[in-house]
């Protein structure tokens, strides 16, 4: 799979003034999905309009009551948003999970863009305790484009404990499962041994013939807006319609290639932050990352938007279709395996609003390591939640750089809580890259990020592959005087 992605001139989104609105209600609960014709009990995050997640108008505060009706403790992280650390939704001792039946309130000024929410309690993310979080800008409201959200998931009928046991070869007793078959512990889930990609990866600084590990888990299905390609969501567009496609990879352990088929899209934002426009029809999307893509739809016809799993033929997706246009049955498999998700797009991205140029006051070097057998993943040689983890200390006002070096044979989508960072180097080569919150670090490669330390607190830095995180690949970024 290959595509040409030239650069186009830059555009900037206008900021919107803050406004006060009535408090919103978000309910964490359970629901039943039909997956491949079989019922599955999963979690859900349902907003005030009865649909998954929350969409905010320009300037609207994130003024939300989170009501836990899931019959088990939960805590929800507002991925990519920059709230005070006690509202971030990570289970520090000072911010414990919300007990079943309880409510917790949040109130902060959100940043505009495509974001999402997910549980940071145990393995609930794998069981679909996730939803979109869309914050519209004033510019969004003035542009004549239909908004389409496409959220991707990986799905298994096995319990998260069974998946984790398949990876660690344990007896699967790490956590007690509620009657719904979903996680009720602080341990996240993982899956059985996945496929290996045996191609030569010289471009990733790997020795010829070295094997890259892909796809920890053999999933039963891949979902796009909770549906498979056997019964995809069909979204009707205006003839000659103009669409803003908000892509969210909410999968726990799966990376995708987004194939627009005969359409060509223009990437205008990544992880919610505007970039200089980039055109293409084949786009990599790592775990937890988002893409905003502008697409102009031809007058008639239907157009699949397909997400293919890296290293596999498996696909999911939705269909954009003009009114009355017939929709053909889609194959759940492509003709050949997709290659590993890579940094081909990352290298072409430029922030529309980059960091102000200045040298870093502090540089941390973070080493990623681990293997499929034994299944354990470390950060700087330490395994979370060891109580003696060494935090990365930073101070308010510093320009901080973190060089993330991957010594493993698997890619790691690294996410920093509480800050938006800029990608400033890949494999040591400087670039003025995108501003984002999650970046993929390929096997035997390195990525350097930089950010301004302007949000004091305790913040997680971790791999967003759920199973890598839960078997050790997480650390803390901490400001002084935060206990």
Note the gap between the termini.
Answer: 48 Å
Instruction: Assign the structural class, choosing from mainly alpha, mainly beta, alpha/beta, alpha+beta, or little secondary structure.
Output: mainly beta
Q: C-alpha Rg, in Å?
A: 21 Å
* Share of β-strand residues: 35-45%
Q: How many strands, which pairing sense, and closed or not: the largest β-sheet?
A: 7 strands, mixed
Low-confidence spans: pLDDT under 50, at least 5 residues? 1-16, 171-206
| Oligomeric state as shown | single chain
The number of distinct helices, counting runs of at least 4 residues, comes to 3
User: Per CATH, which architecture of the largest domain?
Assistant: Sandwich
Number of domains: 3
SSE topology sketch:
Blueprint: E1 24-35, E2 38-46, E3 54-56, E4 62-68, E5 76-79, E6 103-108, E7 113-119, E8 130-135, H1 138-142, E9 146-155, H2 160-168, E10 196-197, E11 212-213, E12 221-224, E13 234-236, E14 242-249, E15 256-259, E16 265-270, E17 273-280, E18 282-285, E19 290-296, E20 302-309, E21 315-321, E22 362-371, E23 376-379, E24 392-393, E25 399-406, E26 412-416, E27 421-426, E28 429-430, E29 435-436, E30 438-441, E31 446-452, E32 458-463, H3 466-470, E33 474-478
Parallel strand pairs: 1-4, 3-8, 9-14, 13-21, 22-25, 24-33
Antiparallel strand pairs: 1-2, 4-6, 5-7, 7-8, 9-12, 10-11, 14-19, 15-18, 15-20, 16-17, 16-19, 20-21, 22-23, 25-31, 26-30, 26-32, 27-28, 27-29, 27-31, 32-33
